[in-house]
Amino acid sequence: MTTAHTAMLSKDRARASWRADLILALLATLGVLAVDACAGFPALLNAGGDNDDLLRLVEVRDLLAGQGWFDLHQYRMGLEGGFVMHWSRLVDAPIAAIVLAVSSLTGNMTLAENVAQVAWPALLFGLTMVFIIRPARSFAGDGAVLPAVIVGAAALYFIGIFAPGALDHHNVQLMLAVASLSFLLEAPVLRLAAFLAGLSAALTLAVGMETAPYVATIGVCVATLFAFDVSGERRIARDFGLGFAGVSALVFVATIPLSAWGQAQCDAFSTAQFVVAALAGAGLAAIASIEAAGRTRRRRLLSLGVLALVLGTVLLVLFPQCLASPYAGLDPRLKTLWLDHIDEAQSLFLLAARDPAELAARYATPLVAIVLMALHLRRGGWRRQDSLVAVLLAVAFLVSVWQVRGSTFSIAFAVIPLSGWIAKWRRRAETSPSRGTVLRMAAAWLISVNSIWSGAAHAASAALATGAGITSDAGADPSCQAKASFAALGRLPDTTVLAVSNLGSPILVYSRHRVFAGPYHRNVAGNLLALDAFLGSDAQARSIAGDHHVGLVALCRGNPESQLFAFTAPGGFLAGLMRGNVPEWLQPIAETSGAALELYRVRPNG
User: Fold this and answer.
1) DSSP secondary structure letter of residue 324
2) Residue 494 phi/psi, 5° resolution?
3) Distance (Å, rounded) from C-alpha 441 to C-alpha 435?
4) What is the pLDDT of residues 491-522, one digit of tens each?
5) 453/356 Cα distance (integer angstroms)
6) For this UniProt entry, which segments traverse the membrane (predicted)?
7) Which of 312, 394, 425, 556 is the most buried (most CB within 10 A)?
């Protein structure tokens, strides 16, 4: 058989495997959608307290209503004039396109938004499944595909960022991160894959800075593989660098207005990120393309070292502020009363003390996967794909030790080695069936499914809990997370509402009112004003209400933030209101008396 025939057969097999994987991902997506449909898509009526999903919908509405592409102000939150959000229009645009297309066909904007809230996360779920199945196949062969489908679908469903209504950017970031890994694994046999890996890495960074550790890790992996294996990695390094630098430039031009090209923002894609990305990508591509720079391993290492030195110098000299902790300058009160209580920002150690059941749910499968990779390394036979998967998994796990949100990535990356582990025991059960082999295969399945760990951990926690549990009506909404709780508020004339930050985004999405507080680190002035009002005296709250034209005060007694404020300042305005001490400058709205969300109108002479 000629080389041309061999290459043709290889391409045919690759096309067939891609078709099969796309079909499997589609089936997994339809299965998850069926589960959500049977439940009635509850997230469309109750966002579960996820302010980010709701505020993204507000941004999409504002964009469709004519707010400028480069104008990222949230005018209805914060002090008068609002504040500038740090999110990317790259996520707003496709959601807005779905809403626009469906509303044009049906003439129903509510239906269009509901379709977008279901279709967008489902599309991302399907793509993420494809990019989990493909690496599993590259990592452990065809036998790992079925485990990747089952374990991967269960893992993605468990982490919740692909549920209907999930419009936040975390699902986009995860999809792009696993896509970059998937394309790198296929780069030796698929010519365009390395460029697509660089493209995915650049888009991941552009969507949000939370993924900077993963993007940096991917770039270091590509450079290291090139340094030690020039014959197999030169083209991959070149194409990855070109994709990374080129797409970073396109994103910069497409999302940053000309007037802001000289401004460096550390929490969003800006001049700082573009300069570093362009230098890193173009530098890697140049080293891989110039024969003199990459002729020997020593020269490659020297050239890459110089590039790293240049990047470090640029960061230190031009953007030193971006090397500090992202919340280093946050007001101490906001750190104590807001940041320290964000679940996804907790460390492993705080989570272990506060919620051991969640600890097992978030860290068990990644830790098992890391142990499997370590045992594989000890046995020898380390391959290119092992290096890429192991390093990304390890970095994601380390990030999750710092902040729980990193477990979203480590759980997804863990599916790849876990699928290979299950495939190994399936082969053994088929070739030499015995009770021991079958039991080990079953154990591998059970240990690899994240939701089993979650269920077992929460069951154990419930069994060990003491004291009577608190029961409530099925329709109750003590934390004020459901759309129905804001119906009365939505019927009132537009005004400024004084409310805790947890209620900020729901108020914006379910009414036309504006608010001061919202759980966003750029909204410092608005959040501090709300703190001053709620934690201060009745007289101080009255003064703030008058000075800033507050028309309504919203109280949710069961919201954790309200309870925290009342505990922090038992003599403060909010604590008094929760005890039923209504000051004379407020008028209770009878319709909301006893409801989850109680409303008080500021009297005209208040």
Assistant:
1) S
2) -60, 135
3) 10
4) 999 999 999 999 999 999 999 999 999 999 99
5) 12
6) 93-111, 118-136, 148-167, 174-199, 211-228, 240-262, 268-289, 301-319, 359-375, 387-403
7) 556
As a whole number of angstroms, the distance between CA 536 and CA 550 comes to 16
Which pLDDT tens digit goes with each residue over 194-237?
Answer: 999 999 999 999 999 999 999 999 999 999 999 998 788 999 99
Q: Provide the pLDDT for residue 11.
A: 61
Rounded-to-integer distance, Cα 448 and Cα 597, Å: 42
**Number of helical H runs and strand E runs in the chain:** 25, 7
Answer left, alpha or beta for residue 46, where phi above 0 means left and psi between -120 and 50 means alpha.
beta
**Nearest-angstrom CA–CA distance, 335 and 322:** 19
SS (H, E, C) 128-158: HHHHHHHHHHHHHCHHHHHHHHHHHHHHHHH
What is the model's pLDDT at position 151?
Answer: 96
Closest CA to 153 of 46, 271, 24, 239: 24
Rounded to 5°, the CA angle 597-594-551 comes to 45
> How far are the Cα atoms of 9, 89, 179 from residue 190, in angstroms, in the given order?
14, 31, 14
- Which two three-digit tokens encode residue 157? 């469903």
Q: Residue 73 has what DSSP assignment?
A: E
- Tokens 């549990």, located at residue: 469
d(CA 241, CA 244): 5
Beta carbons of 58 and 505 less than 8 angstroms apart: yes
Is the pTM above the cut of 0.85? yes
With b for 16 or more beta-carbon neighbours within 10 A and e for fewer, the 375-403 pattern comes to ebeeeeeeebbbbbbbbbbbbbbebbeeb
- Tokens for 236, please give them: 């991959």
CA pair distance 56, 89, nearest whole angstrom? 10
Q: 252 and 274 in contact (C-beta within 8 Å)?
A: yes
> CA of 408: how far to CAs of 412, 510, 547, in Å?
7, 29, 43
Residue-wise DSSP of 376-427:
HHHHS---HHHHHHHHHHHHHHHHHHH-GGGHHHHHHHHHHHHHHHHHHHHH
Contacts for 97-101: CB closer than 8 Å, 24+ residues apart: 99/60, 99/64, 100/64
Beta strands 550-556; 496-498: pairing state: parallel
Angle between helices 524-535 and 538-547 (to 10 degrees): 140
Q: Output the six-digit token pair for 208.
A: 């949000």
Q: Spell out, as residue ranges, where the chain has pLDDT lower than 50.
A: 3-9, 467-472, 474
**Structural contact between residues 600 and 592, judged by C-beta atoms closer than 8 angstroms:** no
Residue 12 is predicted with a pLDDT of: 63
pLDDT of residue 5: 46
Whether the Cβ atoms of residue 507 and residue 522 lie closer than 8 Å to each other: no
Q: Residue 496 forms beta bridges with which residues?
A: 514, 550
Q: Which residue has the tokens 């008028």?
A: 587
pLDDT given at position 408: 93
Residue 472: the pLDDT is 46
Q: What are phi and psi of 46, to 5 degrees?
A: -150, 105
What is the spatial distance between Cα 353 and Cα 463, in angstroms, rounded to a whole number?
Answer: 18
3-state secondary structure of 552: strand
Q: Kindly give the pairing relationship between strand 73-74 and strand 83-84.
A: antiparallel
Q: State the pLDDT at residue 308.
A: 96
* Sign of torsion over alpha carbons 303, 308, 312, 318: positive
